[in-house]
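Re-running the complex after MR caught last week's input typo. The corrected sequence lines follow. Everything else is unchanged.
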Amino acid sequence: MAEPRSRRRGESKNSQKMENAIILTIKELVHKGRAVTGASSLFSSAASHSSSESSSKNPNSRPGSFDSDLSCKFLAPLNHPAVIVGTIALPSKTLICPNRYCFRFSDGDMTICCDILKFEIRAIGSKICVLSWNFLPMKHCGGFLEIIKWKFVDTGNLLSRCSGIGSFPLLPSLFPSQNDDRKSRYSVHGVLESISPVSVVSCMDGESRDSVNLPGFLVHVMACECKSYSQNAAVGCSHAFEKSVFVYFCGLVVTSWHPAIRKLVGRNVALSGLKKKMIYVRGDSLLVFVTTESSVLHPPCISKKQIVLKTVVDRRGNCGSYLGFVKGVYLKGKLVEMDEDVWLLLTDQILNRSHSIRTDSLICIRNVHFVNTKSSWGEVLILGACFKTSITVEFFSPFETSCLVDSCRQNSFSRFIESLSFPARFWALLVRSCFQKFNGIPSEKEILRSCQKDELTKMYAESQIPSFMFQPRGGIITEFCMHESCGCNSEAHDCNLKLVMPISSFVQHYKVMLNELLSQINKNSSANNCLCHSSSTWKRDNHTNTKTLGSDDIGVILLGKLKISSSGRLQLHDRTSSIDVLTPDLLSDRNAHRIFEVSEYNLIMEGLPESMLHMPFLHNSFRCRNVVNPTPLAIENTLTVRFSLSLGTGSCKHVYGHHSLDWRHDLNEFKGKMFHLFTHKFPMLKNGHPGMPDCTSVFVEAIVLPLELICSVTEEDAAAPDFEEHDTSQEIRPHKRCKTKNGLQRERALSVPHEISCQMTIRCASSHCLVSAATLSNLKEKKSVNMLNAKRVLLEFIPECSNYYQALQIGGCYLMKHGTDDSFCAGRSGISNNDKISFRPETRLWSVEFSFDEELTHDGSVDVYPLVSSQPSLVEKQHVSSPQPCSDVSLLLPYDAKGLFSVFLKNLEELNKPFAAGKNNNNISCCTHLETIMQAEPSQVPPSNSLFPEGNLASFRGDVVAVDAVTSSVVDVSSSYCINVLVNHQIVKIFGPLRRHSYLTGFGPGASATFYRILGTGEDNRFVLTSASFIKINSRKAPDGRQLEKPAQQAALCLPKVTPQEYVPCMLAGPACNSFSGNKDNQQIKSACKVLSVYLLILQTRSDDPSENECRNNFDIPLAGFVVDDGSSVYLCWTSGERAFTILRLHEAFPEEDIDVAQWTKRDSTRETTVYHLEQIVRVHKRIVMKCSGSQIDTLFRDITVAVTSDQLLAKSEDTFLKWLILNAISGPLWEVAASSMDMKMIAHLEREQCVEIDTSRLNLQNVWGNEVCQVDPLVRAWSLLQGLLNS
Amino acid sequence: MANSQMGPGAPITLQELYPSSPFYKEAVSLRVTGMLRGYSVETAIGVIEDGGKSLRINTQNLRDVSFRVGSIYQFIGELHIEQSYNEAILQARTGRNVDGIDMNLYRKTVELLRQFLKEEGNSNMVE
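Corrected-run output:
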């Protein structure tokens, strides 16, 4: 290799210094097993020009952005000069290295793999002294030596390097070659263009006529046509290297020259003693020179080459060479990140990957395909390595990064990858790395091992990659010799494949984008409106600031598992992160280990600042680096934007189905078992105070149908290999003829036959359906049973089963497995109304739907019969985009049974209504899905006793038009929001204390939602959300009116209700204030005041879901009382929530010097606010009530009592902190408070609501309710006062 | 002492302190505000400036005020006119740092206050 002269001078200088260097043996290095470098130890003096080549190049050559996230550490340098003496050898059988063809280094004792810079052919077999080196331990062959600087030990050998003297026989010949063989008289002299990997060719042995496997490799030389090669002419010859010539290096021994020849690519070589052979490639004849026993390699003349330290691209047409630093090696070396958006694909298994391709090594890739791919998610330059590609390491990495080891043998996955075009290969490898993210969960270890992931990737990729992206492979010789024409060149450059991304990277991408946008906005508006900020607390954050991005614009597919978080949100999660999901159809199956593909969705970003709404979104392209390496960058979380996905119908697909496993399992579940049918009626509230530990059960009101399903799956059915690869149609097998009892002919019969035969379709996870016969039988032994005998029961879900609870839908129908000892069966017919039945963790539930066949004998149209309007059902099968039913099990019943079920349905409808009158319900049969049921008749509100709001409950469905913030009270419930819903072309107003935190995923204008148990106020079209209310989001529309999903005929998953902890009613003005339009009736007084003391403070946790901790403060102040002074009088100001946060100055930076809070403070930008520290305390104690029990206002701390609900003692430091909190509030600025007066009734109401004794009489102060709080800018206030005085 | 009874410090601006002004009298109590231009530690005399006018302040009786040139201070004290130079100096009783004050607003407020006091005084007299 080229070496600047100056460098060589340095070397001779150093050779004296080397005398006192310790000679290390390889054994020592291997035994230590430590990655060390002997590079800096020798030449540490600053004078030395070539000091530690590998490390000196780094500071100026590595791009800055790379430094920050590089976690690697430098190789440990030895503290003394050390050299290694040994010989370089060609690969041989004695040392089996998985990378097959790499150099060996042996010091007599031990042999390890090595790579060498400035390689010379003469070094092979000579004793050399390695002056500067890196050693990396490797599992396979002890270690790997990177020779940076070396010299011959025998100085007599040091002849002029450019003499070209010496010729190297490829075979160690015992007899000097005389070139007497007439056949092997040809020689080739030219520039070595490319080299193929070693491949094995089966050929006939000339003598024994046996087939032998001969390894060999091809070399492409642009040769000079001059007949003879003279060694002297090599210097400065004027050859014209124009003729393309292939030389085949054949035989086991000759092949071992592969690493050496590889080092010569791009240089001048001469080979003599070759013979000619004609080979046929794809019907074309091709002249190939083949090495013989007497072949001789003439080393190249050393040309002066510059050492380049930056990326160099040399392209000719499609292929070219690329010099650059390795930024990351992924997927066992298949994927190598070079520069920003430049990726090297080393997918061909046969390619030789050098151990020394490590992170931050400088590599030169020759003859690599340049493929620019552009797609909706970004642009990437792919360097596709083919058989002509050769990679040499120009500088070794100074970091302790792991060596590339080819550990995996060729498998079906690698064969699959090899059959793809480069963009598709790249895509498939990204997918593979995403599947990598699905391990770590112990229970699925056995399912998802590495090869399984390969299989998964393969299966998934096969379904995604279009056929034109597959390319036939022609084998090494074809592709090497006929490179231009073999298809290697004709790539499809447009990549329409969507990027598959880990969720964390996906969310991170948008967070970064929003932050960029925010900083842009801030830059734009920093100059003007400097006073505006003070009024920001007036407006509460508008939750309706939402932006949606369609998946077509995003171009990203997400893979993940669906789960329901403890807070009741449906989430898609992978190992990296999770994201909230809204979906219209969902399997209620409990196997949480299935991976779903989400390709069609809308990304909803909620809670954007107002200013951002009008900004065009930046279209940053996605970084593939984030896909393979999803380490989230630490960005300051200035925005609290919620991300969620809104999925269309059927857009959530199973990625894989390991058919047999799942299918058998499902079958076994059903085989010969009996099931109860029950209908879930209404989820009752989680009782229990938010502060309480979550050990309470949840209850569900349900109706148990007096029917039992007996499944008659037989072994034969099970063995029937009916399922197809992809989504199957419903009709897999011909209908089984079901027996119908004669007694069932009468329509609307109130009597039930003892048995109804039906066809059961079980929807398995693997997207296919299993059909079997089943029998619905009557629970009662009596022949005729009135359907009204359905029993109302209370299902108790213990905390372990809350997952089931979350997935249940109002009005849904479910199957429950029959167990002999469960309480359902214990009595069998002994269940009576209002019994409480416990639901145990091992119990499984399947959602079920019913359909009725007109004639079971003919395959006519199937009339689907939903039980209630919100019941997921199969509408018209041929029109539904997804052919899958939405429930786990669907029962096809004879048409006759419809009458029976309509009675049953009617029954249900009535039960589902909270105040079922049971009258005039004649026409409920077959109600359409979008029909709205409005059942609340305006009725007279009885005189309120003010303890609970009263009125009729209603359930309806409509489109949310707007959500306005109001501050008023409706039927004694203070409302912070008014939801305008369009129901049947009428606007209905729903008031409620819905807060931003309790916002349902995706709720807002444009959502089509079903409201259950909304309290009617007695006024037209005015309703109130109560703690029993339940909101379900069916679909969402984009703000421009475009429907985001296909019209959701299927109902949505039940989303979490407004739970009591989110529901903090605080009574405001009395019942007189029934006007919702504003606060015109409410005499609100604005005054500037100062906090004198904190009278009462309640802090409590908001939610038990730890996943919410990251973005928002996780606690709430349901009630706080402050003694304030407005200069003229002192009064007691009550407030809650964000207003209390403001007065307590919780969002301000934590003043460290105020208090000794060493344990609270760790320097961290997110931890600098008081709210962070307070949250830590509240999280521990769940609910803290601080109360000033003294009668004096100014006796600070003397009479303050702190009560906590947790059983942990309040630590001294916590106590101090809480008291400091009061002090901090007192020393706060002037606040402008808009307050309205409170009467004793309201105080009493608050007391009841918060379960505290307020006892305001002690202070004898006026009580007011603070509606709005904002900090006073004294200057602004003074000017306005002055203005007012001057004008008056 | 010549003046056993001390009056309240009447707020004035430095522009109002010219030799013929009603405030320019020996031992009159004043409240003055201005930016500290200079301060001598040896003599404890500082110079405040506002609106192009300056006034010397004798701060030898002040204890807890730290002086920083460039900050705005407010002093209450008695005016002493040195006969030899016919130059006024305020013997400060008390003083404070009022950094951040809006001097425009302050001047207007002072005017308004005087107007108010005058009206108040008039009405008192009527009574």
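None of the earlier attempt is carried over here. The beta strands of chain B are 10-11, 29-40, 45-50, 53-58, 72-82, 87-97. The first helix of chain B runs from residue 103 to 126.
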